[in-house]
Amino acid sequence: MESITTTSYAVHFNDKAFFELKKYLTLNSYSKVFVLVDENTKVHCLPVFEELMADALSFELITIQAGEENKNIEACNKVWLALSEMDADRKSLMINLGGGVVTDLGGFVASTYKRGIDFINIPTTLLSMVDASVGGKTGVDLGSLKNQIGVINQPKMVLVASMFLNTLEDRQMHSGFAEMLKHGLIKDASYWKELKAMDSFEDIDDHILTSVSIKNEVVLQDPTEQHLRKILNFGHTLGHAVESYFLENNEKETLLHGEAIAIGMVLEGYLSHQLTGLSLSELEDIKSTFLSRYPKVAFTDEDIKTILSMLKFDKKNSHGNINFVLLKTIGEPVIDVKIPNDLYTAAFAYYKD
């Protein structure tokens, strides 16, 4: 698979990935290398990484707790302290080996430690491969509010090795697949149809490449999310609010990111039908596709009220306005759409119907 070049780094795939990492380490004289993992990747992915990099890399290991609930400033503080205690200087390198929590948090820690050290991301989940691999977004949650603290800073390279997907349960694969379906909805109707037809994840490599290419094409045109890059947030305005609500509510089962975003895309698909011209047949296509792959979640009126109250924290908001990305048709998004208040409850009613 050919590497993908971004504005400042390359995404390398499978066997080429670790060849390029070894070459990079040979050409760059780092004082120390640190590998950040969580409890899961320490068990399932670190041994594979160590075998692939045998005799090519000496490193110090830092481990954080797994799970979105640990993607916070307290975890950052522990990693900063670990770096300091192990004498990390400004010529150190951090390699983030894990899913989105590890790459987001690790990238933020590296970007801020001693005003910034180099980092490399090795995403190990489908979600992080097709989402966090491109764009340079780093950061952590503020309480249950998603990604409120962070910076945009680019890694030195990203390595996507699909062998790590063998460590994932089916639910995690479906979570990442929701972001891939989103890429079709916002950019390529034929890709949407292609993904819908998949009944297994056996031949996912080429689709990973397509998704990374789609996101890279968008980010190259708008690296700091002033205009076009906002389209990547389709399904995320309501989806993030749903995810945050289930994350902070101990009585609810926590939703994975893709599961929440799948709900968000159905809800925002309904808003698109009402406001930006998405046809009823396309809306029904979106709804049936997501409900066939992701279990329907029950929402009480109180749940919906609390979820809607969280919309004011969305990062795309400006001047007190909640800005949505909606669809004119599948493959053609519209940004910065304002929503009449009465449509929110109607969208949830459509999802629950």
**Total count of domains:** 2
Mean model confidence by pLDDT: 95
Structural class by helix and strand composition: alpha/beta
Largest sheet: 4 strands, parallel
What's the end-to-end separation, in Å? 43 Å
The name CATH uses for the topology of the largest domain is Dehydroquinate synthase-like, alpha domain
Count of beta strands: 11
Describe the structure.
The protein is of the alpha/beta class. It folds into two domains: 4-167, Rossmann fold (3-Layer(aba) Sandwich), CATH 3.40.50.1970; 172-352, Up-down Bundle (Dehydroquinate synthase-like, alpha domain). It is 48% helix and 17% strand. The chain has 14 helices and eleven strands. The strands form four sheets. It has a four-stranded parallel sheet with strand order 4-3-5-6. Strands 1-2-9 form a three-stranded mixed sheet. Helix 10 (236-248) packs across helix 13. The longest helix has 19 residues, at 257-275. It is globular. The relative contact order is 0.11. The model has no long low-confidence stretch (mean pLDDT 95).
Give me the secondary-structure topology:
Blueprint (H helix, E strand, L loop, with lengths): L3 E2 L4 E4 H14 L5 E6 H6 L1 H7 L7 E5 L8 H13 L7 E6 L1 H13 L5 E6 L2 H7 L4 E6 L2 E8 L4 E4 L9 H18 L1 H8 L8 H17 L14 H13 L8 H19 L4 H14 L7 H9 L14 E6 L2 E6 L4 H11 L1
Parallel strand pairs: 2-9, 3-4, 3-5, 5-6
Antiparallel strand pairs: 1-2, 7-8, 10-11
Helix pairs in contact: 4-5, 6-7, 6-9, 7-8, 7-9, 7-11, 10-11, 10-13, 11-12, 11-14
Attribute tags:
four-stranded parallel beta sheet, 14 helices, 2 domains, alpha/beta, Dehydroquinate synthase-like, alpha domain, globular, three-stranded mixed beta sheet, 48% helix, 11 strands, Rossmann fold, 353 residues
